Amino acid sequence: MDKIVVTRKIPQPFVEQLETIAHVEMWDESLVPMPRVQFLEAIKDATACFITLSEKIDQEVIAASPNLKIVANMAVGFDNIDIDLVNKKGIIATNTPSVLTETTAELGFTLMLAVARRIVEAEKYVQNGQWQSWGPYLFAGKDLSNANVGIYGMGEIGKAFARRLKGFNTNIMYHNRSRHEDTEKALGALYVPFDTLLEQSDFIICTAPLTEDTKNKFNESAFKKMKNDAIFINIGRGAVVDEQALATALETGEIAACGLDVLREEPINMNHPLLALDNVVIVPHIGSASVITRNRMIQLCVDNIRCVLNNQPPKTPIN
Q1: pLDDT tens per residue across span 227-242
Q2: Is there a single domain that holds both residue 132 and residue 227?
Q3: For the domain that residue 170 is a member of, what is the CATH number?
Q4: Is pTM beyond 0.85 here?
Q5: Which residues are marked as active site?
Q6: Keyword Transcription regulation, does the record have it (predicted)?
């Protein structure tokens, strides 16, 4: 009988769907990743695994799972999977594109506005009993209206973000590995070189995936080229940013503030230099965290596993 390993606790209705096609072994925690040792043991006789970004699919995993047919990744990004290796082994890998696009763009927009208007700082100020009176520049922030907003990575999430910018009368620029002329026509977005994006943007939004080309793209040199009052938002992947360079840029006034939904290492080390800065807002990788969207992501993983174990093409194959 087929066996499915599920590395996070998911709602029972989804488990029951999986149980109609195979035996299910599920880690009984939703906030704590399945330990690597236990994962390696569980997949020894598995034909499918339902994973999150916490699980690395590498040579060790593949060697331990000779019967594995499908890896269903509950994410759009798949830098946690060695795609070349699974291809060579004839294993199908899937992800969850499209279903989280709008929700992630909304979180990015929320983060941008919260940083621009210093909402977190202001809320702490009230909670700490420091609010004594009104002041003309008390927590004065930055306007989005008429600002130059640069998007790094014009994939589906980048496009969804750009659509939201139109209602704020912004000037939209973007840099991507390829141009999207349909988006330029529909939204009036301007394709620019990366350096131009850095130099002219009042807000820079990173929605890019992690690749060899994007790794550490936002480094010391990049931050030095940005405006001193620029705001940087990352809802792409943590390793796109050199976080020490970012912290230095914020401390020295190279840029004004940042908002991050993703980090190089998650959860964040509480000694991380970014946590000591008031002009930083960090949230715990909640870009797609609405109930409806997370249900859709899980359902898509379930559907992909069902298809493959029934010898049908998966709905959203990566490879």
Answers
A1: 999 999 999 999 999 9
A2: yes
A3: 3.40.50.720
A4: yes
A5: 237, 266, 285
A6: no
